[in-house]
Amino acid sequence: MVRSVQPCTRLSLVVSSIVVPGCALICLHLNGHIDAQADEERVHLSVASSKDAAPETAIAESESAQSSELTAKDEAALAEGQALYRGLCSGCHGGMGRGGKGPNLTDDRWLHGDKDEDIIRVIKNGVPGTTMKKLGESLKEQQTASIVGYVRSLARSPGESNWTPYMAGDPKAGEQLFFDDNGKAQCAKCHTVNRKGGHVGPTLDRIAARRSPEFVMESIVQPSKFIDPLFEAVQVATKEGKVIVGLRINETNFSIQLREENGRFHSFMKRDLEEFHALAKSLMPENIPEQLSVKQLHDVFAFLMTLN
Amino acid sequence: MVALRSSSQASVGARAVLTLCFGLMLVPSGCSRPRAKQSEEPNAAAQATAPDVASVEPKLAQPESTPPARQTAETTSPDAQAAAARSTAVGIEPVEESPPVGNVDDKALLAAQDNDGNWLMYDRTYNAQRHSGLKQINRQNVSRLQPLWTFQTGVLDGFECTPLVVDGIMYVTTPWNHAYAIDCKTGSQLWHYQKSLPENLALCCDAVNRGFAIYGDQLYMTTLDAHLVCLNKNTGEELWDEAITAHGENGQEEKDIYKMAYSATLAPLIVKGKVIIGISGAEYGIRGFIDAYNAQTGKREWRFYTVPAAEDKAEYAQKALKTWAGQSWLTGGGSAWVTGTFDPDLNTLYWGTGNPSPDFNGEVREGDNLYTCSILALDPDDGTYKWHFQNSPHDVWDYDGVNTPMLVDFEKDGKTVKALVQAHRNGYFYCLNRENGQFIYGKPFCEVTWADQTKGANGLDPKTGRPFVNPAALPTEEGVRVCPGAAGGKEWNPMAYHPGTGYAYVPVINNCAKFTSGKAFFIKGQPYWGSSLTLIDGEASGSFKAIDVASGDIRWEVKTRSPMVAGVLTTAGDLVFTGDAEGFFTAYDARTGEDLWHFQCGSGHHASPITYALDGQQYIVVCVGWGGWTAGFAGDGAPWLRDARRGNTIFVFTLPTG
Asked: What is the pLDDT of residue A254?
């Protein structure tokens, strides 16, 4: 399940040294280096924060120059873009670009065109009839470009990262697993890609453009770590003693609407309920890494990474 | 009704049971019963405009009495008689007829509290209590309240207006400076006015307007391009259009100051023939001021700069100048974008001031930055400085001090305290002596981390009220989590007071934000923030609180799913009205917070309800239409508000007449 990007979450998919009977020890590094040979099909992965993984990051750093696509010049432009964005744009579009008074700049919906030149045009000319102000006379061309670059970076990931997956996957095989209703993953039961699939979880179209790779991987292996408030599961108990668990579609101060996994819709007035609360766990199964082989996990991941 | 914060941490079971049994969250200190004091001292004379307290006729339903006090006045007009017959038929008491107002003069404005039939100024009265003596609609019958008519303007942005009602006609302003006159009885449009606005306005917080002021036959509206316009109330015809001026780069007085990012959004206040307004634009490095214009000619009579300049030789100005590093006062902010209040007995005008610029980078403006984030007491005749109280010296979290400085009187230790109370964005409920600005108390009404709660009294110096700032809360380059977030613990939307309970009813925002400080670059006419903030994902919720003005203690609280950002109305029917972000307009029991009636209005509430009476019937009015800066919660804090429906509609409710 995909959640909103946490700004400070610099995740590295690291060290999962959990020995499940019959399972090998696996260790994933920032650079994808293998510590322990994975010779077993089923693994259990956990994701540690970069703080927890301090010793491993040293290895990554030695290779960072090679894996980083950013040159020093790019980084300077990004820093400039960030300063300009924060000072000029964040008031309406949010500190992380997820919108507010102004539109979300990270959701891949571009009301005035999605090319760089479209975004530059909007920044320069503003949008008449709205509070989007003209910036053309105030900024140099290169400054506008740096804002666009930074906005693009906001949409793409929660921050720069050198994380790479443990192994390459086969996107074709992953696609099959994704859509196979009787398979081991059954992702499409809940997630939609290209208009195919269910609606219990978020749509994953263009997910690779919207979320960082490590965030996507983490979402698969630890679905409850961050739950988007828009995709929280709730449990309600009616006064007649019926208990229903479903995805919250909407909630007001007086009512709540939810949809069960089987698609059934319910609307309740809160005063008619004995109790209701959000579940701490995502509706997404937590055992997917155990259901899939390492290879299969990376196949599904590779398929998701093609969605950009 | 309570929306539980749907978080996994919540001890949901117990809360839900409490919630569902009582429909509200009672604070342990308890106020399911009204204060005994109130029944002994009905109408605790919180009227700044009433010099002789004892002579004021109690107009409020007694907290202990079940049915509302009967109206005894005789009705004489044929209309009123017909209404009386109609009303009696369905068991509601007719409202006593108000005499026609005619031309709204100083006398009418001073006596606004006693004029139940009309709503003559933004805050209803000069003390801004937003309390009406009408009680036809009351706790017993409010559950039968029904919409009578609606009026759609077709405008989409944040609807923040408090309508005026004079002699059966309603005057409303909308975003983008449209204005309407509407027949109160039928909802028919009588005229429409639209200000011609230039392109490329600098509007930090939506293209809003908060309403008209009326004086004589004339209506006054501030505009997004920083003008003051005067309309004929009968025709909507523009009588004059005065450009507000300000100093340009060369020190010259300039027009078209919207190009320097000045704008105006507030409803003007009329005091003794002067139209008093404040300016907006502190997100763009303007230099704030409060102005008074001649109501007839539109000529400016005085100006008070909230951020004094080097050439201002007055003592208060020179004192303030020392609180700005270098030339930082030139772009110091300190706008004054919410209508102030007036005490005729003390002949004092009270006005709140906004944040210093740049918002989040305080390094370029070392010092207290007077008179930003302050309450200013001025002489309304000439704008002379009387005193100030700075709630947030050297603010770096955008805690504008503009929220309405409400004037109330209460008894303490056998003495009448002439107080000014304010639910500040910085999360404290302040009480000052309005005669001299002395600090009485300040108590947090939401989570506050920017001030060190372990020091002083709740983080404030008990003598002076100056906060002990928590150094760990100062914005950094990496970002630091601080509560409340930049929308504050309470937005600009006005609270209301009920003299029968002694409570102020405060819509609260529970939210925290990650504040970053960064490069502060000033570009004329462009935002001057000095970096930014990000609301913490999913952490914005709301509550509606009854705060005892005598002590600052919270008497009851209703938790809500989303931040509460609409204005409040109290009535002598012991009701409190306000709306929520999901579109529900709700009547609460003033004593307990129980929700007695609610209605889905189709878009979020950000405006302030009013009430009026016509032909023996009481009406409740609310402007509905989500927007304003609070729409900013949608990105991170309350993402369920993303793509929240917009669209301006006026709703008028009344009891069915058969």
From this structure: 95
User: Under an 8 A CB cutoff, do A101 and B631 touch?
Assistant: yes
C-alpha–C-alpha distance, residues B652 and B227, integer Å? 30
Domains along chain B with CATH numbers: 142-654 (2.140.10.10)
- The ipTM assigned to this model is 0.82
- Test B201 with A131 for CB contact under 8 angstroms: yes
Q: Given A87, A93, A253, which is nearest B531 (Cβ)?
A: A87
Q: Chain A: residue nearest B539 by CA?
A: A229
| Nearest residue of chain A to residue B585 (CA atoms) | A253
pLDDT above 90 for B561: yes
Helix (H) / strand (E) element for B303: namely strand B300-305
Q: What is the CATH number of the domain that holds A41?
A: 1.10.760
A128 and A244 fall within a common domain: no
Whole-number Å distance between alpha carbons of B139 and B162: 24
Average pLDDT over chain B, rounded to an integer:
88
> Are residues A184 and A293 both part of a single domain?
yes
A308: tokens are 């950009």
Assess whether B398 carries a catalytic annotation. yes
The answer to the question of residue A45 being in a domain is: yes
B503 — phi, psi (to 5°)? -105, 145
User: Exactly one of B398, B548, B595, B615 is catalytic; which is it?
Assistant: B398
Residues in chain A within 8 Å Cβ distance of B530 = 87
* Highest mean pLDDT out of A113-122, A281-290, B5-14: A113-122
B517 neighbors A95 (Cβ within 8 angstroms): no
Upper half-sphere CA count for residue A23 (Cβ side, 13 Å): 19
Domain around A179: 11-68+162-226+285-305
Question: Phi-psi region for residue A186, left (φ > 0), alpha (ψ -120 to 50) or beta?
Answer: left
